Automatic annotation (TrEMBL):
Pfam families: CutA1
Family: Belongs to the CutA family.
InterPro entries in alphabetical order: Ion_tolerance_CutA, N-reg_PII-like_a/b, N-reg_PII/ATP_PRibTrfase_C
Originating organism: Hydrogenimonas cancrithermarum
Name this protein carries in UniProt: Divalent-cation tolerance protein CutA
Length: 111
């Protein structure tokens, strides 16, 4: 099992997505966050089917940081129930994973 994760989070706007991304990178909870604009989400909420324009964040992090990452997202997110879904990174470029590790080690030293 890999220690690296991609975490998917949706946000209401580009500015909210950037706020979340900057917060996570500054706290060394994410090595990188890709922001994918203009997604359309269809979901159930309070007994209704909702359709919303959203922005998708693809966050690169580590399994050991997920609880802290979730707390940090919830701190700055506008949604009552934000999407925070973790996907295991099974394989990747060793150079990229080493780069992630070097950034995310900063968070480990902060604890």
């Amino acid at each position: 099992m890999s220690k690296y994760r991609m975490v998917l989070v949706t946000a209401s706007s580009k500015s909210e997505a950037e706020k979340i991304a900057i917060h996570l990178v500054k706290k060394a909870l994410a090595a990188c966050v890709n922001i994918v604009p203009k997604i359309r989400s269809v979901y159930g909420w309070e007994g209704k089917v909702e359709i919303s324009n959203e922005v998708l964040l693809i966050i690169k992090s580590k399994k050991s940081l997920l609880k802290d990452l979730e707390k940090a997202v919830r701190k700055v997110h506008s949604y009552e129930v934000p999407e925070i879904v973790s996907i295991e990174i099974e394989e990747g470029s060793s150079d990229y994973l080493d780069w992630m590790e070097s950034l995310l080690k900063k968070q480990s030293r902060k604890k």
